[in-house]
Structure formats: C-alpha cells, structure tokens
Design a protein that fits this description.
Strands 1-14-16-15 form a four-stranded antiparallel sheet, covered by helices on one side. The protein has 21 helices and 16 strands. The radius of gyration is 29 Å and the shape is globular. 44% of the residues lie in helices and 13% in strands.
C-alpha cells in the first residue's frame, strides 16, 4: 500500500483593514509604552473612544484617586445603558483605565497614570516639547503652498498604486521612485504575490480590495503593514507611532524642523517622504512639510480649518470636498453597455491600468478609453484572485452619472446601475471556474489484497475522513487531517 498527498486550491482571503481602536487594542505588549507620549494619548482621546468615554476621562482627569464604578454609572442615564457599557468596554480594552479596589469593598475605575499625566501635558502644556515643533531658524525662501503639497502627495502615492496594477510593465515615469522596501511591504501585506513560474508579480484579491478603498484608508492600511515590519529595520514601533501622531496634529502648509530627530527617525522620515506623507526637498534639508495624507492619518474626518494656513494670496485651500486623487472625473467616468463594451471617460493612467485588469482594451484616445469585457479577460482576473463581486462593485462605484440617471428613469427597477446581462454573465464566468471544490487529501492505493483495502476503507469511513473510494482499483482518498490516524491504524493492523 502507498499513499500520496494532493494539493488543494487556496481560498480567496478578504482584506482585513483595522481601525485605530482595533490596532491599538492588539498591541497589548507595548500599549503601556505608547502612553508615555503625549501625542499618542491625545490621538487616542480624539479618535479612538466614543463621546461618552471622552466625558468619563475628562471628569476623572484631575481626580487623584480611583472613582467608584457606581459613581461613573450615575453620570449617564439608564436610557443609554448600552452606550455607557460600550464606552466602559472601549476604555478597558485600550487600558486607559483599570479596575481597582477601594475601602468598603467597592470596585472603582482608576485612570492609567501614564495616560493621565501625558494627556494633561498635551492639553495644558509642560513636559518635553515635540522635536518637530522646534522653530526653524530661517524662513524658507522656497516655501511650498498647499496645492503643491497635495499634488506632490498624490504623485508619490500614485507611484505605489501604479506599481501594483502594472508592476510588470516597462519602467516608465509612473514606476520611478518605488523602492525595494516599499515592494517588500506590498508583499508582506499580501497585496501582491510573486509567480514562482516566471517571477512576475500578480495582484491578489486583497490587493484589488485595497485599490477600491479611498486614499486615506489605503494610506492607513499600508502604514499599519509598515509598522508591523519596522522593528526588522531597526526602528522603534513606539517612536514611529509617536511621530505619525505628531504629524497628524501639524498644520498643512507650514514647515517644521528635523533638527531634534534621532537617526532612526530621520530614516523613518525618508520612508514617509517616499510614500508622500511629508515633503522634503533634499535628504539633508533641515525642514519638511507634512502633507494632507499625514494630517488625515488617524481620522476619516476632514482636517480642521485651524490646521490649514492661508496661501500667499490670503485664500485658504481647505475644502472637505477636496479629493486626493488624480482622476479628473472622480464622481463617475465608466459607461457599460449591454454588448459588454466599456467606455471610460478619464485620462488617469492609474484608472485605465486598473480597468485593464479585467477588461480587454480596444482603443485609447486623449480623454476616453474603449474596452470590452470578455470571458478571457474575466478569467484572467479570477486567476489573480479578483472576484466577480469585486469587479461588479468597482464598475458600480465608478459608474457615469448618465448611467445612474438612466437606471433611475428606467421602468425596470433593478438594484444595480449596470445592465443585468453584464452582471449575470460575469457571475456565470466565475461559476465556470468554481465548479469544483478542492480539499486537501492523501491517496491510498496499491493494496496487496482486497481484505486489506476493505479494512482500511471501513476504518476511514468510521472516523469520517473518507473522501472518495474505488473498490475496483483498490484506491481511496482520505482527508489530510485524518491521514495520521489512518496511518497509525494501518501500522497496527499490518503488524497484527
């Protein structure tokens, strides 16, 4: 009797994008060290906890002893008991407070001493000044305005996105500036995988989901992956997080000093420069400008007006509707016809490259690109881990306003602005590929007698690990998880 392992196809993995609360909650080993930095405490208070939890912290901040839990519960109405419980849970998960015993056998809440001390420093002043907020000795003769910083930030960020959607193309202007370190982060995050056969890089299902996210969510997820590997570069995770949070409190359009930064933080600054979070003319320049990507790092809310300085003409460029994107027609530029033709009214190379992942491009003009959805183009996307639902979602998300209007005026009410024939056909092409289900297993064959085969088959069936069997060829397949049990049984049976 011989056995042989078989390999199963891997399942599509959904992208897990943590928010700030979930990320800090997972850092159980260093969370107490994080609260040694006022910038982190202020960011946690601002962006991580519910409004009710903020009220609890503010009431307890200047109290120098634990507060009984019954007193804390009395601060909120019983009508909102669920919200109060959620606020207490959030403060406990982030270790902002902890349970303590007081006289009389009562339980109380006690604020984390480091968090309390450094949040006071962030609000009331004192302590060591933040290095980047040291004054620059001379005014910058080549100061950069906000529009320049926005353009610079997106040009750097789009470099990374262009690499993801077209990494195997010839090195053009969009590919310049992508370092080996950035590629390693992309691979570490499983946004791309390397093809072992030809050495090329392929976009994964998670990578496609990443490209569908808004820019701020992309930056947040990418930087989390960077932070997971920063200690491998000899950088301190706590110091890197502190600097990122300090940048989120900076003012857009103002320059800051890099004089007081350590060598490790200067290295970290160069990485942020590559990703577009800061602008620095040269590596040796003693000043830098945070970009909008850095200011919006911890929160999805638009940056506050007080965090934007006026340009030389006296006009503030802060606009909550400003889109950090290189699309001229961001609101919608794709028209899909019932004959599977796609018209993309955009000159964005990034969006055209993204469209080419699942579309066969036919013509390209200065302001419009024509393509067609085919069975081969969809199957190529499916092989890369992209799902039919993701393709349909992308087309719906970027649908032209004309398509939306036609769908609203149509007598046939549908749940999508896309033609039903196109949606159904994309799903059918996916179902063609998913007709088979794969399970890891071990093949047993070449039995010397039928009695041996039947004995082992019946045992595998009795423990529910038999996947397939053929009595004629004396062959059977058992689950990989049950292989060890079957093998041990066979050894005992053959010896007896």
């Amino acid at each position: 009797m011989s056995s042989k392992k078989t390999t199963a196809a891997s399942n599509v993995v959904q992208l897990e994008c943590k928010n700030l609360h979930e990320y800090l909650k997972s850092q159980t080993q260093i969370i107490s060290k994080l609260y040694d930095y006022p910038a982190i405490c202020l960011a946690v208070f601002r962006d991580c906890i519910p409004a009710i939890a903020k009220q609890f912290v503010m009431r307890m901040l200047c109290v120098e002893q634990p507060v009984p839990q019954a007193v804390v519960q009395s601060w909120g109405s019983q009508v909102f008991a669920k919200e109060n419980s959620a606020a207490c849970q959030a403060l406990t998960e982030l270790k902002i407070w902890s349970e303590a015993s007081i006289s009389g056998g009562l339980t109380a809440w006690d604020l984390n001493p480091s968090f309390k001390r450094n949040l006071k420093i962030a609000w009331l002043g004192g302590g060591r000044s933040w290095s980047m907020f040291n004054s620059v000795e001379q005014s910058d003769a080549k100061s950069r305005d906000i529009s320049f910083l926005d353009t610079y930030a997106m040009s750097r960020w789009n470099c990374l996105l262009h690499y993801m959607v077209d990494s195997n193309a010839s090195k053009g202007s969009e590919m310049e500036g992508i370092s080996v370190d950035a590629v390693r982060i992309i691979l570490h995050a499983n946004l791309m995988v390397r093809n072992e056969q030809d050495g090329s890089y392929m976009l994964t299902s998670q990578g496609f989901q990443f490209l569908l996210m808004d820019t701020q969510s992309q930056v947040w997820h990418f930087m989390l992956q960077y932070l997971n590997t920063c200690e491998q570069r000899g950088l301190s995770l706590v110091e890197c997080l502190s600097m990122l949070f300090e940048l989120s409190f900076s003012t857009l359009g103002r320059d800051y000093s890099s004089e007081g930064l350590s060598e490790n933080m200067l290295t970290f600054m160069q990485h942020l420069r590559e990703f577009g979070l800061v602008y620095q003319r040269t590596r040796k320049e003693k000043r830098f400008f945070p970009t909008r990507l850095a200011l919006n790092f911890t929160t999805k809310n638009a940056i506050a007006p007080e965090n934007v300085i006026e340009n030389n003409n006296g006009n503030s460029t802060n606009n909550s509707k400003l889109q950090l994107n290189d699309d001229n027609n961001y609101e919608g530029y794709i028209i899909v016809e019932t004959n599977y033709r796609i018209y993309a009214y955009t000159d964005s190379k990034l969006q055209i490259s993204l469209l080419a992942l699942f579309t066969e491009l036919l013509y390209r003009f200065p302001n419009v690109t024509v393509g067609v959805i085919t069975r081969d183009s969809i199957r190529q996307a499916l092989r890369g881990g992209i799902t039919a639902r993701q393709i349909i979602s992308y087309l719906e998300q970027h649908a032209h306003q004309k398509m939306i209007s036609n769908a609203a005026a149509s007598a046939f009410k549908t749940t999508s602005v896309l033609p039903p024939t196109v949606i159904d056909q994309i799903k059918l092409w996916e179902n063609e590929r998913n007709r088979f289900t794969f399970t890891d297993g071990v093949v047993y064959n070449q039995f010397l007698s039928e009695a041996d085969y039947l004995t082992l088959r019946d045992y595998a069936q009795s423990i529910d690990v038999l996947l397939w069997q053929s009595e004629r060829s004396r062959t059977m397949v058992v689950k990989k998880s049950g292989h060890e049990d079957v093998k041990k049984f066979w050894k005992r049976y053959s010896k007896g």
